[in-house]
Structures are given as C-alpha cells and as structure tokens.
Amino acid sequence: MKKFASILLAGLMALSLFAGCSSEVTSTDDGSSAAQASSSGAESQAESNGSSEDAYAGLSGTLTLNGSTSMTAVCNALGEAFMAKYGGVTVEKANTGSGSAVTAVNDGTALIGDLSRKVKADEDPDEKFTKVTIALDGIAIAVNPENSVDALTSEQIEKIFAGEITNWSEVGGDDVAITVIGREEGSGTRDGFESIFGFGEDKKCAYAAEVQETGIVVSKVASDPSAIGYVSLASVNDEIKAVSVDGVEATEENVSNGTYVVQRPFVQIYTKGTDSELVKAWFDFLKSDEGQQIIADQKLVTVDIDENTENQ
C-alpha cells in the first residue's frame, strides 16, 4: 500500500489512508525533502506494441518536480494518477516558486521544473531546456466577498496596485482604504501580473504585504474586506471573489477564447535530450485523455502539448 502525503505551508503534514492501493505525492514549500532526481529501477521500455501503457511497463523511481506554488494542485493531482498507473513510481513536488525551477533542474534536485510563466531568456541563454506549456491559467483579481465592487477596468487595477487609487470609494465601493496584497519576488504569478499591467524597474507595485504562497493571498483577502490581491484562477473559492476585468468575467472559457486577458501559461521544463524514462512517461501521460481531463478538472485550460513544446 502506498500512502498519499502532502506537506503544506509551514511544514505541516497531513496523511490520508485509503482502502486498497492509494498514491503518494509529497509536496513541500522549501524543497528540503525533494530527493536527488532518480530514475533508478526498472525504467525499461517494453517493445511490444508501442502503446503508452506497454512502453513504460515496469517503470520505477522517483520523479522530482520543483517550482511554482500555483501549480501545486495540478501537479499533485497528476502525480496521484501517474503513481496509480505506475506502481513503482514516487512523485515529489517541492514548492519553492517559479524562480527556483531553473536552478532545481540545473543542479539536479529536480527532473522537472514548474513555472507559472514563460521561461525568461536569461534563464536559458544556451537553450538547454525543453519547455512544455501544459495548460493556461487565468490570474484572478481577488477581493473579499463583502466588497461591493464586482468589476474593475485594467486602468483601475493598475492604479490600485501602483498606489494611485487608495480608497474603494474611488472605484464605486465603500469609503475604506485599500489593502494591496502581492506575492514575493520570484513568484510566477507576480511576474505574470506585473508584466500584464506594465510594472517593472521604472514602475513598482505598492504592496502592503508580500507573501510566499497563493494560499496565503487567499486567506488574507478572505479575512480582510479591504484587501485586493491576485491568485491563480484555479485557487478561487467561496472565501474570495474574482472581479471582472474590462467587463469580462474570469472563467476558463474566457481564458480559452482570449477575452480574459489576465492569463499566463503553466510551463514545465526539463534538460533537453534527457534519457529519463520517468520524464518521457510523465509527458506522455499529460498528453493522454486521462491527463488532459485531470488538467481540466483543476479549472485550467488544456492545450495541445505537442504544439506547445519548444526546444526539443
């Protein structure tokens, strides 16, 4: 029997035991338990009929992923199903932010890096990584459900985060000072949001707080009627409210058709030319009907993975 374990936030551990065989995905915030990427064991590729099920029969080892916290839920869901399919495999997901993904693959502590944004040119100057967009995700502009504001324009959002609009009454809400919550430097969500709204070296966001996790943004906005933040669309729940942007609601459909412009890719990278059967099997699984359904179930927009693979 395999156990499913997930270590969240400040190293808390929750164990869930299921009848029969279950799956185990270990998820950490600091990468400390992400074992050295290992593809040892029976990573033999069967020669029978070329189908994905037969091609990786006997697959075993540890598949390590590291990077974006926004991608934790989808990686864990995919990891559970992947381990259920291949009983000899363990998947470990470390959550140290998109900025750590390249370093983790470079230094060998992860076979796959997770970025909730595109890979920057200076992160891969020698084009040593294969970059795979596995899904598209909307970035929701989140407010407290008690906030009467349901819609903002792009200009209003930019001015709120720049500190030029400081009271909700300026955008049709109550006479309450706005509390701006953001993510830490290196966050893919922050990078995506700031790029979309024109922030950079010459123009900074005026954050009241910068936090390390998507879940912390959710909890802060949920507990503070004056707060505003940005989170993965997949992280929106009943505790927060996603406002419409320029009259367009934040939905998977509107991300897919391009009318909701506050969006970014979910990207996974690995060393080009890898001989790891674990990596090959993982991406074949993501392309399968089962993998695509799991991605869609996480409120993400599926893409043609073959057409969204660069530098193979």
TrEMBL record:
GO terms for molecular function: phosphate ion binding. PROSITE patterns: PROKAR_LIPOPROTEIN. Involved in the system for phosphate transport across the cytoplasmic membrane. Pfam families: PBP_like_2 (PF12849). Residues 58-290 form the PBP domain. It is a lipid-anchor. Keywords: Cell membrane, Lipoprotein, Membrane, Palmitate, Phosphate transport, Signal, Transport. Residues 31-53 have a biased composition (Low complexity). This is Phosphate-binding protein. Residues 29-53 are annotated as: Disordered. Belongs to the PstS family. One of its GO terms (cellular component) is plasma membrane. Residues 1-19 form the signal peptide. The complex is composed of two ATP-binding proteins (PstB), two transmembrane proteins (PstC and PstA) and a solute-binding protein (PstS). SUPFAM superfamilies: Periplasmic binding protein-like II. One of its GO terms (biological process) is phosphate ion transport. It is found in: Cell membrane. Its main location: membrane. It comes from [Clostridium] leptum.
